[in-house]
Specification:
The complex is a heterodimer of chains A (296) and B (272). Chain A has 296 residues and is an all-alpha fold. Chain A is built from 15 helices and two strands. Chain A has a single domain (67-295), classed as MetI-like (MetI-like fold), CATH 1.10.3720. A two-stranded antiparallel sheet of chain A has the order 1-2. The radius of gyration of chain A is 25 Å and the shape is globular. Chain B has 272 residues and is an all-alpha fold. Chain B is 79% helix and 0% strand. In chain B, helix 1 crosses helix 11 (230-271), helix 2 (46-53) packs across helix 11 (230-271) and helix 4 (95-107) packs across helix 6 (130-155). Chain B is globular and about 70 Å long. The chains are: A mainly alpha (296), B mainly alpha (272). Chains A and B meet through helix 1, helix 4, helix 5, helix 6 and helix 7 of A and helix 1, helix 3, helix 4, helix 5 and helix 6 of B.
Chain lengths: 296, 272
């Protein structure tokens, strides 16, 4: 009996506040927009009984999904989210790998401090970290002032409100997610393997390429997914740094809901976004499981 | 004794400069006299004064703290229960669905979580405000808590619990007297994680709140949408300071606790 309550409380909570809301989104994505409160049709009328239920289901359709394919805005936004997520994941790897590598090779008594320095930004507000780049990248910002003072440029570079600013924002905020899994893979690396490779005639670069890189592959894959998955649906970074030029699906969904008040289309956008995300999520889970099996 | 090679020194310096310079600049410009944020016009703390006199910010801060305290506490209780169920309850009907519902919110885009909860609250005709934000934050934070706690639960020696049961403890007593003290560090870090996630959240709070409650992130977001503002720099500096002090204190406390534990263990070994 006690076991039953223990299971039931978190179970029911998640059913009510995770699964049911999601089913509602699914249902509304099949409804039509209406000038009413709430602003969509049809409404389920429990008083009408079986007949009401039948007419309710007969009015649901895939119109909104069809609409998503006809309007350029949506598929462009999906594609550009994917592109931005891919490019920024690659850039994060480029920045994160050398840092993780250097941390793993640092003297042992330094490592806890370095680790804390990587984790510390994670505890500071995400919003503030994104915001901090607004003062750096804007036309009269710190970066442009510095470059002009150095005489490298004469007129300010337009970085703010471009996709470049979004890349910088993503790399900056998600860098710890890339560094940590790679670091934990590299830290376990047995140094004698590298010595063996060098004894057998490898150059240091060859030893890195043939030994270190493959052995840190699981960390790299995990880090890439941890950056890629949340970036696709990102809202804060494109709306603060990307300006109106940057098209990302999280922002489209937000505007569809808050500005256009078209709930059915916003719900359809959400459903398609989730369908896109299922592939990387499943791949990520598989990678994690393989790693656990390899360790256990 | 290993030393830093030049390559590693350069990558660490550049990497940490990249991570910390933006925040250092933010703190630096919060003491700027000028309203033009990037033109230095002398040292001043006037933006802090203005911030502390701004009732709207103080109200938002109070709402945020209230939401964070309630939701992280609830999330810790529910998340610990969920972790216990995942690791200890064995097989039951719908276990796959349960673990799916624990892990899915971790990868769910915030815009979707926010949208779906809002539609639920509207369907239930709930008045949106502090209460609905607490419900929303509890739901996603409990999943993070349960991941943290369950990783601790899987690694600890189960025979300790069994011994307590053999010695006549009820299952609840065994949990309170044996399990809970052992997993306490994980429960505390789960609470801290839930608290920070709640303090931080803009997207889900924007969806699930109503006109009656504005949280600090919502306030910050609407203030900075149009550009950099010195007041927000001051506010950010205060928040960065709190977090830094908190993290450093926590790491010192846990280091001391680890040292004390090692000393106790060694004393126990010597006593044998």
């Amino acid at each position: 009996m006690r076991r039953f309550t223990l299971i039931a409380i978190p179970y029911l909570w998640l059913l009510a506040l995770f699964l049911v809301p999601f089913l509602i989104v699914l249902k509304i994505s099949l409804s039509d927009i209406a000038l009413a409160r709430p602003p969509y049709m049809p409404q389920l009328d429990p008083a009408a009984g079986w007949e009401g239920l039948k007419s309710f289901f007969s009015e649901l359709d895939f119109e909104n999904f069809a609409f998503l394919t006809t309007d350029d805005l949506y598929w462009k936004a999906y594609l550009s989210s994917l592109k931005i997520a891919l490019v920024s994941t690659f850039l994060t790897l480029l920045v994160g790998y050398p840092v993780a590598y250097a941390m793993a090779r640092a003297p042992e008594e330094w490592r806890p401090t370095l680790l804390m320095l990587v984790i510390l930004p994670f505890w500071t507000s995400f919003l503030i970290r994104v915001y901090s780049w607004m003062g750096i990248l804007s036309n009269e910002g710190v970066l442009n002032q510095l470059l002009m003072w150095l005489g490298i440029i004469d007129t300010p570079l337009q970085i703010m409100n471009t996709t470049t600013a979004v890349y910088i924002g993503v790399v900056y905020t998600y860098l710890p997610f890339m560094i940590l899994p790679i670091y934990s893979a590299l830290e376990k690396l047995d140094g004698s393997l590298l010595e063996a490779a060098e004894d057998l005639g490898c150059s240091r670069l060859e030893a890195f390429w043939l030994v270190t890189w493959p052995l840190s592959r699981n960390g790299i894959i995990a880090g890439c997914f941890l950056v890629f998955i949340p970036t696709i649906g990102e809202f804060v970074i494109p709306s603060l740094l990307g300006g109106s030029d940057t098209l990302m699906i999280g922002k489209v969904l937000w505007e569809e809901f808050f500005s256009n008040r078209d709930w059915p289309v916003a719900s359809a956008v959400a459903v398609v976004l989730l369908l896109i995300l299922i592939i990387p999520i499943v791949l990520f889970q598989r990678n994690e499981q393989k790693q656990r099996e390899a360790e256990g | 004794m290993r030393r830093f090679s030049w390559f590693n020194t350069v990558s660490l310096t550049l990497g940490f400069a990249f991570l910390y310079l933006p925040m250092v600049l933010l703190v630096f410009y919060s003491f700027n006299e000028s309203r033009l944020v990037t033109v230095w016009a002398g040292f001043s703390t006037k933006w802090y004064g203005e911030l502390l006199r701004d009732q709207a910010f103080l109200d938002a801060a109070w709402v945020t703290v209230k939401v964070a305290v309630f939701s992280s506490t609830l999330a810790t209780i529910l998340g610990t229960m969920a972790a216990y169920v995942l690791v200890r309850a064995g097989r039951f009907h719908g276990r796959t669905l349960f673990s799916g519902m624990i892990y899915a919110p971790l990868v769910m885009p915030e815009v979707i979580t926010g949208l779906s909860l809002l539609l639920l609250f509207i369907g239930l005709n709930l008045d949106r405000g502090v209460f609905t934000i607490v419900l929303a934050h509890t739901t996603f934070a409990m999943c993070y808590v349960s991941v943290v706690v369950s990783s601790r639960l899987t690694t600890f020696d189960r025979s300790l619990e069994e011994a307590a049961l053999d010695l006549g403890c009820s299952p609840f007593e065994a949990f309170r007297l044996v399990t809970l003290p052992i997993i306490a560090p994980a429960v505390i870090s789960g609470w801290l994680l839930a608290f920070t996630l709640s303090l931080d959240d803009l997207v889900i709070a924007s969806f699930t709140t109503g006109p009656s409650a504005t949280t600090l992130p919502i306030k910050i977001f609407s203030a900075v949408r149009l550009g950099v503002s010195p007041q927000i720099n001051a506010l950010s500096t205060i928040m960065i300071a709190i977090v830094t002090i908190g993290v450093i204190t926590a790491s010192i406390v846990s280091k001391r606790a680890a040292v004390a534990q090692r000393r106790d263990e060694q004393a126990a070994i010597r006593a044998e």
